[in-house]
C-alpha cells in the first residue's frame, strides 16, 4: 500500500502501465488487480480512516522507495507507459545483478516504479 495525493489518477496510471484492473475504485482507496490477484493498494494521503494516515503529508512521497513489478512483456508495458506520457527515469536496460531487463519510471507522486522482465529472459533492447 502506498499513500497518494489522487487515488483515481494514480489508479489510472498503474492500470495502464501494469495492465491492471480496478478492484475497488473511488477517491479514497483502491485495490489494483492483475489476473484477479491484488498487486497494489492505493490510499489517499490525507485520510486516516480507522488506522491513522498512511504517510506524513508534510514529507515528500516516494523518497527511498522503489516499487518493483515483474511483467510478462516489458516492451508492451513500455509502450503502454508512453500512451500516458509516463516520466521515464531510465530506459530499458540490462541489470546484470538480477540478470533481467528493467524500465524505471516515476508515477504521478514521484514514486520510483521499476518494471522488470523475468530473470535470465533474453530481451532485445530497442
UniProtKB/TrEMBL annotation:
Q: Which domain of life is it from?
A: Bacteria
Under PROSITE patterns, the record lists: VOC
- Residues forming the VOC domain are 1-118
What protein name applies here? VOC domain-containing protein
Amino acid at each position: 500500500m502506498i499513500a497518494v495525493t489522487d487515488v483515481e489518477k494514480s489508479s489510472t496510471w498503474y492500470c495502464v502501465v501494469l495492465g491492471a484492473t480496478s478492484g475497488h475504485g473511488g477517491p479514497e482507496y483502491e485495490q489494483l488487480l492483475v489476473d484477479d490477484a491484488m498487486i497494489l493498494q492505493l490510499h489517499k494521503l490525507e485520510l486516516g480512516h480507522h488506522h491513522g494516515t498512511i504517510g506524513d503529508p508534510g514529507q515528500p512521497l516516494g523518497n527511498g522507495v522503489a516499487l518493483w513489478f515483474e511483467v510478462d512483456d516489458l516492451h508492451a508495458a513500455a509502450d503502454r507507459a508512453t500512451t500516458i506520457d509516463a516520466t521515464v527515469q531510465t530506459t530499458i536496460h540490462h541489470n546484470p545483478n538480477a540478470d533481467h531487463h528493467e524500465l524505471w519510471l516515476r508515477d504521478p507522486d514521484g514514486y520510483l516504479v521499476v518494471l522488470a522482465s523475468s530473470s535470465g529472459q533474453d530481451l532485445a533492447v530497442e
